[in-house]
Description:
Layout: E1 3-7, H1 12-27, E2 31-37, E3 49-54, H2 74-100, E4 105-109, H3 113-121, E5 126-130, H4 154-170, H5 172-184, E6 202-204, E7 221-223, E8 249-253, H6 255-258, H7 262-275, E9 278-282, H8 289-293, E10 299-301, H9 306-310, E11 315-318, H10 322-330, E12 335-337, H11 344-353, E13 357-359, H12 367-379, H13 381-395, H14 399-414, H15 417-421, H16 423-426, H17 429-437
Parallel strand pairs: 1-2, 1-4, 2-3, 4-5, 5-6, 6-7, 8-9, 8-11, 9-10, 11-12, 12-13
Amino acid sequence: MSHLALICPPYASHLRVFESLAEQLVARGHVVTFILPIGATLRLQHPNIEVCLLEASPALAGRPIAGLKRRLTPALIQTVGDLTERTDRLCQQAPGLLRERNVDIVLGDQMEAGAGLVAAHLQLPLVSIASALPIDRDTGIPPPWLGWRHDPTARGEEHNRVAENISRWLMRRHNRAIAHWARQWGLPPRFELHDCISQLQCITQTVPGLDFPRTSQSAHLVPVGPLRSSMDEISSPVLDASIDPARPLIYASLGTLQGHRLDIFRLLARACRRLDVQLIISHCGCLTPHQAATVDATRVVAHIPQRDLLAHCDVCISHGGLNTVLDALSAAVPILAIPLAYDQPGVAARLVHHELGLQLKPQNLTVARLTSALEHLLTAPNYRRQALTLSEEIASAGGAMRAVEHIERTLYFQGSSDAREGFDEVLSRDTCAVLLETPHTPSRHGCP
């Protein structure tokens, strides 16, 4: 039995990914401790799952944002500030918690720099989890928060380098925190988020058929497809008598952070009325009942079992969040992406690149453009055909079970002798054989 620390942002989409890993790890006999900011909640309850909530540090509260306010949007200021505070909080409090629990390995979300810093400080192996698009640097791929098309030419690579430099400038407050803790703990110099992800192994939900072509720089990426918990599965039907199976059905969701976009939902409803198609909207609890009642869709709900509903749909309208996109493609449903923030422009660009869907920019949304895009997705067969091909790739990717097997492989070859001794109780004979036949290559960079 091994003890694993799981560290991820307090966002629902990231928490669901880590819950799926925890569920599989506990089923295989491991002990799991979540290290989360205060206010984060888990659905899982099990004697072998512990949740440690990090308290906000008074020293960090209200810290100035070093001149960024005059030049950056409030949303970006808030995002950089949140990242910086979480990194500082993790580095202040997590080492003691992990030492007390004799943790064997750290599973860290790629967006939590503190996970990599703490693992290096405690000399623990680190496996990074790409809940969103992988941030692993690749000269042929633009940063994931840009909606640029894939350009493998020298000019494209130069554009990508410029974009990385701009991103580095925008993230400089967070980068200063990373550099501070690396110096504080006597680690090799680390300057940005990319320097804090594992060079041993990064598990990603993004399968190759959804990503831009990557080079050998990303050879340590392990694509496993959607990481989903059994808690997401239901047995009751998701459609009621108001849904006509003979008419096209469209599902729309803007995720848990953008579900308040009432203006977009109203436009979607008007476009679907023009096409005489059915529209089910999930606002993820972000609208009041009064606001929801003003949207003229077939159904407007706070929550709905997304994967089960998508099995009945013809098109999915999404903000480009990776979890929703993977759920739709798993059901072979093409996507109209309306990217709003974070890595969503990058996801939308990949959908267009692989002819898995279309995208419209939120600032250019009109009923006419929405109607045209939806009509094209409903009638052009290539999008459904491409989505069907990708659904087969996703189905064979392995999911949480394959991810846990790779985590155990890293633990076996990089963990302590005590952790390796416990594998006789945890692993099957066949899995042990795979581990022994597949030695893991040490990091080229000396990072955890």
